[in-house]
Amino acid sequence: MPVKHIIVTKLFEFSGSNTHLKALISFFGPQNVLLILEDEGQVKFLEKVDESGLVRYKIKTNLCGYAHLQYRWTTNLKEAFRLLKSVFYIQLLSFRHGLADITVCAVEPEKHLYFFWAPFCKVYYILHTTPNKRYTSFTSYTCNRKLGKRKKIITVSQSNKSLISKNWEITEKKQTCVNVVYNCVTEPVDGVQLNTERYNAHPVCVITMGHVIGYKNPETWLKVAKVVTGARPKVIFIWLGNGPLLNQYQSEISNQKQIFFKGAVTNTDDYLKTAHIYYQPSFYETHGIAVVEAMSQSLPCVVSNVGGLPESVREDYNGYLVEPAAISQHAEAILKLVDNEHLRHSLGENAFTRFKENFSFEQFKTQLNSIYS
């Protein structure tokens, strides 16, 4: 059966890009999707983005990753040949499936961006991460030459759109082809029921989800957790997720009875349903899909005032915005929620309302329909 959408992507054990890809596959219909994976090791993660088992995949190990074209002319000729070969492959694959659309789901900025030069098919470039300064002028040339009705960039926040436009030097005219589609949660959620289940529970639980890695700011998180739990013995802090710093921080809390680094868990929804406050002190987030998941479970959120996070959390409406390194500011915001059950309930209801209005799967589908039409 021909497919309608070819998605070039990279799968992970746990990742916000996995969650976005799962929603994208649901939008397209899994029977209409062919995934292009770069190595056999990613196949074991396929069930994390496709529970139906209908999505097909191909392993393509030798696709050129980046178009630098900044070397001496002999090296540039070799690279140009590799780029043309990769473009020819993706174009031929599109032809074989009735001129299927090409979508690149990128977590590494500019990787496979040169697919915009595929001449006959529609190409969509979805970027989940923060774009760096362009590698070479070829990136800017590609965007300013090829972006249009059949070649579009999609990213997950207005903040990231601004960075893409600035760092890749995209002209104002072509910036209209850089689209924002917010992260979403695909499963339906009953926010009212969730509220009634949790608010008499003790202790008060502050939860965080994500990799234990530098930019997520675990150092500040731990300092804030110690301040708050020292002041309120009936509060616990839980961080869910693996990461390169997990073992370090688990050892640092070996004597703590109210602070936990749980590592990776499969039942994150169970934790969110019994939590009271969501806390994300990151130094930067393109959008923060974990915050959206928390909002879908009616949790008030305390998040850093950086990147795409303020596009989800409105000050004093569904949570509080804090500066990443301001420990006293973080602790004050969390204690305000810890000490006021009515406030947690009110801001949590607002969080669910904002989720439904902006970050539901229905909103995701509406936005994508306007882009892929």
Automatic annotation (TrEMBL):
Name the record gives this protein: Glycosyltransferase family 4 protein
Every Glycosyl transferase family domain range: 205-352
GO terms, molecular function: glycosyltransferase activity
A Pfam family per the record: Glycos_transf_1
CDD domains in the record: GT4_PimA-like
Origin species: Mucilaginibacter rubeus
SUPFAM superfamilies per UniProt: UDP-Glycosyltransferase/glycogen phosphorylase
